[in-house]
Amino acid sequence: MRRWRRWIYGGAAFLVAGALLAAWLFLRPEPVRPLSPVESAVFEQAFGVPPPRAVQRGVAARLESRLLSLRDGTPLAMDVWLPEGLARDERVPALVMVTRYWRRTELNPPFSLFSFPPDDVRFFTAHGYAVVRVDARGSGASGGSRAFPWSPPEREDGREVVDWILAQPWSNGRVGALGVSYVGTAAEFFAALGHPAVRAVMPMFSLYDAFQDIAFPGGVRNDWFIYRWGKANAVLDANTLPPGASWVAKLAVRGVALAGEGGQSRLRLARAVEQHAANGDIYANALSVTFRDDVARPAGVSIDAFSPHVFKAQTEAGGAAFSVWAGWHDGAYARAALERFAALDNPQRLVIGPWNHGAEQSVDPIRDETGMGPGWLPSQFERLRFFDYHLKDKGEKPVPEIVYYVLGAGEWRRTPVWPPPGGSEQTWWLSAEGALEDDLPARIASRSYKVDFNTGTGRTNRWRTQLFRGDVRYENREVKDQSLLVFESAPLRADMELAGSPLLLLRFSADAEDAAVHAYLEAVSPRGRIAMLSEGVLRALHRGAPAQRLGGGHRSFLRTQAAPLVPGRVEDMVVPFLPLAARIPAGWKLRLAIAGADSDQFARVPPAGDVIWSVHTGGQEGSRLVLPLAER
Predict the structure, then answer these.
(1) Do residue 387 and residue 505 come from a single domain?
(2) % of the chain at pLDDT higher than 70
(3) Are residues 52 and 175 in the same domain?
């Protein structure tokens, strides 16, 4: 019997060892390669220049785990990845990524066999860069706490990271910063430090105005995101995995990677996690805010205290060049990128693709296609081109322009300004019969709508991708639109190309003192398939005093400009849609769907009670949709 057990155990061990070896051979990273001819052609079509050539330095990157003691004694956890085979006398620039989502994970055996450098680390070290990944103060293996995101101490920590880099024997004296989402905003704040070594930053898929871009789009609290983002952060800060993590992740991951050398590393991590317990509750703060200038409790500051757009003067004084990446389907971040492009005098290059958050997915809802290029590797070569010029004096200066994908056309375009020059506007009038008409309706009327507070955009909308980078799909619109106020055009007689920010000029009355207008611009194929193009949201309380930015749809959201509704009185609202670039084929129809709630994503306005609207149509002052037409 013992002999059979030995055979069984030995066979099982052999199979496990074989499986691990096969997995290691299959999962180990491939060497960084040049672009293929097809990828090069896609690159040149999108970006207008030939791609840079790859430098082959191998797969490996040398890792040094560090703890930087900050000015107040807080330990900051850093991973420093250096190029394989870096010569003693060789000097390289550094790219910094500051995250609050763990700079690196510690894997349990035998999964630790697969602890390879991240893809972006391998790419940039293969091309002669040091990559420094940092756990932000109050997160990961770093000590301290944070009252709110991107707090003044956290931003100032970046200065000490840069100074440390400059003191290293491998540094060429130049530093760039990059990242996606939170990490992208942290990169943008490096540009506001005014440090002469910071020459280039790359905020990708990130906010510019924290109030309207993510927390309160149109003044309506992004309730689903704020609550779950706060909970997920608290779990990570306690050095545990979020509840939604897969069983494989829970089996493989022990927690955040230890930092520093010596036998006290795990004890230091335990102390850091204890300090994280004092981190602020972002959702509790959000519940105390209605206006941009409200002081959130318990944070004690308004949201503008950590919003990049407020630091415009410091960013321009620093002079760092920007390369910004955004996606049409990524919440309001394409608008954020365009706002930044218009606001800053710094050299800027902006790429907007058919992407969700982080470009994990690319989709063209009109063509009903996915996987449009450029993919990850061509995009990395465009990022390399930007950093090579600014941090290595290598290559030609990237043109300061907007590179954007046109949904429905399958084409990439370039423009120096937004909207692209030569465009015009076209007005479509809402009729009481539910039509969108390109001629002014003669009959002045109104259409009643009882708000359905149970309607929503589903679990795969543009706002939810910003938490887990999930795919963006607006499913069952044929059913969902039945509970909304819908206006539809006749089939288009010719292709229509849009480039800019549509506006809904809504003339309506309500039997409440407040309301939230959620508007959806859709295209309907001859077979009835509905493609979501853009959406807009505005709380009636914030409808006053628009500033003329990006089509005039921007609001101040200040308490002094609050405008409660008078029940029953006819009011005018300008509801801006998120920007887009799309070609709608002839034979398709335009559809405007209007709701008073999105129960899957946003807070309810008003918080209780039934609400009935009257949407007024006809005449020169009637409700209408203004579309930005691209030059033919």
Answers:
(1) no
(2) 93
(3) yes
Confidence class of residue 7 from pLDDT cuts 50, 70 and 90?
A: low
Burial state string for 261-271 with b = 16 or more CB within 10 A and e = fewer than 16: eeeebeebbee
Do residue 75 and residue 116 come from a single domain? yes
Q: Which residue has the tokens 């930005």?
A: 628
Q: Token pair for residue 128?
A: 């002669």
What are residue 101's phi and psi, to 5 degrees?
Answer: -115, 35
Q: What is the pLDDT of residue 260?
A: 87
Write down the catalytic residue from 157, 209, 330, 364.
330
Catalytic hit among 151, 181, 323, 446: 181
Whether 97 and 132 share a structural domain: yes
Count structural domains, the chain. 3
Residue 571: is it exposed, middle or buried by C-beta count within 10 angstroms (0-12/13-18/19+)? middle
Hey, what are 540's tokens? 């009636």
Catalytic residue list contains 40: no
Q: Which of 127, 276, 309, 357 is catalytic?
A: 357
**Same domain, yes or no: 376 and 468:** no
Question: In terms of DSSP H, where are the helices of 28-151?
Answer: 37-47, 119-126
Q: How far is CA 41 from the centre of its chain?
A: 27
The pLDDT value recorded for residue 30 is 74
Structure tokens at 566: 């008078």
Asked if residue 312 and residue 246 are part of one domain, the reply reads yes
**Does residue 342 share a domain with residue 434?**
no
Q: Which of 318, 323, 70, 44 is CA-nearest to residue 193?
A: 318
Supply the pLDDT for residue 302: 98
Give the alpha-carbon dihedral of 339, 345, 349, 350, to 10 degrees.
Answer: 0
pLDDT at residue 55, rounded to an integer: 74
Residue 330 is a catalytic residue: yes
Comparison of pLDDT for 323 and 61, the residue scoring more: 323
CA distance 440 to 427: 9
CATH of the domain at 324: 3.40.50.1820
CATH number at residue 573: 2.60.120.260
For the chain, the first-to-last Cα distance in angstroms comes to 83
Question: Both tokens of residue 138?
Answer: 């109050």
How do residues 375-411 score in pLDDT, each as one tens digit? 999 999 999 999 999 999 999 999 999 999 999 999 9
pLDDT recorded at residue 19:
46
Backbone torsions φ then ψ of 183, nearest 5 degrees: -65, -35
| Amino acid present at 349 | R
**Same domain for 620 and 606?**
yes
- 413 neighbors 361 (Cβ within 8 angstroms): no
Range of the domain at 14: 1-30
Show which of 371, 395, 415 is a domain's final residue. Answer: 415
* Single-letter residue type at 567: P
Hey, what are 88's tokens? 């003693």
Assess contact for 340 and 210: CB atoms under 8 A: no
Torsion sign across C-alpha atoms 21, 27, 31, 37: positive
Q: Is position 115 annotated as part of the catalytic site?
A: no
Query: For residues 502 and 628, what is the distance between their CA atoms, to the nearest angstrom?
Result: 6
